[in-house]
Amino acid sequence: MIGQQRDRQQRRKPGPFDLGVSARWLEARVRPVIRRGGLSPRENAIVERIKLLKKEAGSHSPSAPTLIKLIPELRMRVDACFLSNPYATDLFLDYLHREVIRPGKLRKLLEFYPSQNRVIAGKLSAAIGIATDHLFVGNGAVEIIQAILHRFTGDKILVNLPTFSPYHEFVRPDTQVVYNLLPKDEDFRFDAGEYLEKVRRERPDTVVLINPNNPDGGYIPYATLVAMLEEMREVRNIIVDESFIHFACEGDDYAYRSLTHEIDRFPNLMVVKSMSKDFGVAGIRAGYAVMAPERVKSLLDNGFLWNSSGLAEYFFDLYSRPDFLVEYERKRVHYIRHSRRFFKTLSGMPGIHAYPTHANFMLIELKNGMTAEDLVCRLLVRRGIYARACDDKKGLEPGKFIRVASRTRSENRFVLRGIKDALR
């Protein structure tokens, strides 16, 4: 049913916020206005407005709806900046339409307060097999990150570079941030031995590991992580962010391995999980963390009573249902398969170096003299393709790196053609 729904979506003419369209439709509409060579004065004026919005967004990129609203001249077609599984979004929308919108139950989700944090944690507990008192539900992963850093982190935190910026931006003013720079000439490979040496030398009270890492997609195998946890029992707080773990497969099948069931063994461990990436529901703000019960109680005793929305609660209801999870698993595997093909093709393009990834995005270093900002703006203005310039990422050389997310199969084909054309 979802496939038929997407086919219908691709045949119709999209609206201004409809980014899931077919490559053939995109080519037919966009190709007549594509020019080679320098940007025109009109295009340069649009680029300057894009740069201004990016500056105002700080270390993150302005969202696609923000760009569309504030720069209506843009004809955005593919949001390859946003990191999510679009097929999972289709699945959620299908359930939402059948069970909430069509029966007229949407008003109830919007008008009344959602359940309190512990109640929603109880629903999540059934889905992931973790006791309710070990679960802290957040308004997206960012709220959880800030809550953990402000409540538990002390004098010093160790953070890898490059990484997701809130882990060093949201610390308290009295917390010292120590960086572990991943080597670019080794494809940002994480070395567990060197890392443990740095932990012993610096003696931080908090360490952060994102697995797979954002923005390079590097992955630390499960066995390596467990061995590291054994060596870091004296570290007060170990944060492992698994927001992209559903895309990281160990072995030949598509299974992934999470540390969430290791909390009792390692009470200093806190596992953070965003639902935005794998389930494609960033707009409803849903995330959770698994941690020792006393940590959960400490957070709940200091706020976070009604920090979820009615739509987020409905999502967690779905997440606890076997029928939904069976359908989601098919969408997850389907997405990983064609994402791998997309990354393989992208890696073979001349003029770039593509870094190995275990996530649903790829970090690309430009080797043809073009700057990241130039390429991103050219793709957006000329093709309607939105990619992520990584100039603001600590640990990455400014002007050299962009990050490209995998989208639907047809959108990926359109992105490949757009990048190939822009790099010429």
Automatic annotation (TrEMBL):
Requisite cofactors: pyridoxal 5'-phosphate
Catalytic class of the enzyme: transferase
GO terms of molecular function: pyridoxal phosphate binding; transaminase activity
Cited Pfam families: Aminotran_1_2
InterPro entries reported in the protein's UniProt record: Aminotransferase_I/II_large, NHTrfase_class1_PyrdxlP-BS, PyrdxlP-dep_Trfase, PyrdxlP-dep_Trfase_major, PyrdxlP-dep_Trfase_small
Lineage top rank: taxon: Bacteria
Gene3D superfamilies: Aspartate Aminotransferase, domain 1, Type I PLP-dependent aspartate aminotransferase-like (Major domain)
EC number: 2.6.1.-
Domain Aminotransferase class I/classII large: 133-391
Alphabetical keyword list: Aminotransferase, Transferase
Cited PROSITE patterns: AA_TRANSFER_CLASS_1
Sequence similarity: Belongs to the class-I pyridoxal-phosphate-dependent aminotransferase family.
Listed name of the protein: Aminotransferase
Organism field: Paludisphaera borealis
